[in-house]
Amino acid sequence: MEVIIKKNYDEMSKEAAKVVKKRILKKLNLVLGLATGSTPLGLYQELVRMHKEEDLSFKKVKTFNLDEYYGLDPDHPQSYRYFMNANLFSQIDIDLANTHVPDGLAKDIGKYCLEYEEEIEKYGGIDLQVLGIGSDGHIGFNEPGSSLGSRTRIKTLNEQTVADNSRFFKNIDEVPKYAITMGVGTIIDAKEIILLASGKNKSRVVAQAIEGPVTSQITASMLQVHPKVMVILDEDAASLLKKRDYYKFVVESVEKF
Questions:
Q1: Which pLDDT value is given to residue 175?
Q2: Which GO terms describe its molecular function (predicted)?
């Protein structure tokens, strides 16, 4: 696990965008796993800038999103399909047919989730997965207690997640209580992973995920067993890491070679 600590959210987002750009230039038909929420917004804004100002093309890129609220129409302003279209897809040259966001209105959920997994496999698996981390340590919507080998499925959201996400809705009662999400096992299958976190409010759970034990109670901790994970943090999110100085030393040492 490589831990990169940047000064602030803006620098963190730009660092992540550099990694994504590098991977796309290396493989034009990159299979890119994407996340939603406030954390990756800066990354998406920088990718849009790179597309417009640096001619970064997404024409052959395939994308798969981690999750979607169950019960929300894709045109709902708080659906993740709407979020992705508004904040990234509509502003770059990607073919919408190459973008995949779980269907929040799927009727046969079990069948649909299996098909989502098969679609990922059809394209050879996810090359680079972008993740955020919830305040309780979840990745995707894999809440505390989720199986570390889980696959795409429907999950009941816990009270903390509902409360955290209520800021995007008029009131907490409007927040969906269920979501379709890639499983921890699905996420870990990605060839490479980037985890982004910013702000003091994420510092405790970031420290637990990176330096604590691997546990289903902090599903992001499973990233410790992955062979190629890059964690990009701002100073605030990294503030409780015990080995913070060592992580900075490692990055500085690598840059010299």
A1: 87
A2: glucosamine-6-phosphate deaminase activity; identical protein binding
